[in-house]
């Protein structure tokens, strides 16, 4: 029996009134939020298994836009059903086969083209959570158009080619994440030291579980709040440093 990998409760969520709007880009729907002033800097947000409409991910999009970036979260599931908190974990491996975070290259290209041609973006970063964190790790190995990346609790596991990052990448983990062991994190660190030619950073946040960094303020537990806020600040600082 597989334990529920998402230890934060996804059922009870406060309502979130979004600041952005939805657009259609070729065959993809996307949620976009822009800052109030002109900028040529953009950030792609890659959602987790709960998809592009999940309130927590839209909150992150709006947060990034508030820091001065054209921010976009495309539907990387291309209109198919996201995972739901009522689904059964025994079905998760099958669901994942049809939602492979390493098969996001085409969608990333569509969104990059849109950001450059329609939004005037010159520098584009990417941040992703869980499923999206895996997608970010993958894309930072493959797509040189992405100026910097932040992967939150998601890593490419089964490839020896996963350490030659093309541009600066920051990996954020929770210490109590039982989907990513500390051993895996130490291995990643050792291999990046050996192979990685660009700036990278790995940080583990004490006592935090999988999915901790995307909670909205009203859903945070008081003891986790400082770590959640620190992780978000760190994510934004990394993007600001390079994008």
TrEMBL record:
Can you quote a single GO CC term?
Answer: cytosol
Q: Where is the Dienelactone hydrolase domain?
A: 29-241
Species classification? Eukaryota, Metazoa, Chordata, Craniata, Vertebrata
The scientific name of the source species is: Struthidea cinerea
Task: Please state the protein's primary subcellular location.
Answer: cytoplasm
Q: Which Gene3D superfamilies match?
A: alpha/beta hydrolase (3.40.50.1820)
Q: Which family does it belong to?
A: Belongs to the dienelactone hydrolase family.
Q: Which domain of life is it from?
A: Eukaryota
Q: What is this protein called?
A: Carboxymethylenebutenolidase homolog
Give this protein's Gene Ontology molecular function annotations.
Answer: hydrolase activity
Where would you find this protein in the cell?
Answer: Cytoplasm, Cytosol
Which Pfam family is one of those matched by this entry? DLH
């Amino acid at each position: 029996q597989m334990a529920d990998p998402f230890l934060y409760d996804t059922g009870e969520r406060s309502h979130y009134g979004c600041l952005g709007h939805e657009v259609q880009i070729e065959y993809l729907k996307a949620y976009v939020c822009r800052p109030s002033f002109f900028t040529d800097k953009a950030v792609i947000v890659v959602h987790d298994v709960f998809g592009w409409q999940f309130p927590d991910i839209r909150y992150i999009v709006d947060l990034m836009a508030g820091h001065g970036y054209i921010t976009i979260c495309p539907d990387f599931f291309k209109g198919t059903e996201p995972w739901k908190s009522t689904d059964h974990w025994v079905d998760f491996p099958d669901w994942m086969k049809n939602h492979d975070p390493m098969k996001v290259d085409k969608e990333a290209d569509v969104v990059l083209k849109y950001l450059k041609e329609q939004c005037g973006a010159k520098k584009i970063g990417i941040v992703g959570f869980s499923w999206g964190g895996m997608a970010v790790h993958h894309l930072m190995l493959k797509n040189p158009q992405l100026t910097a990346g932040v992967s939150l609790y998601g890593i490419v596991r089964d490839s020896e080619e996963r350490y030659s990052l093309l541009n600066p990448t920051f990996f954020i983990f929770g210490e109590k994440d039982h989907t990513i062991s500390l051993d895996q994190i130490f291995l990643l660190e050792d291999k990046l030291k050996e192979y990685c030619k660009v700036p990278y950073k790995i940080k583990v946040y004490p006592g935090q579980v999988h999915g901790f960094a995307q909670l909205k303020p009203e859903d945070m537990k008081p003891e986790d709040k400082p770590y959640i806020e620190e992780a978000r600040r760190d994510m934004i600082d990394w993007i600001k440093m390079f994008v």
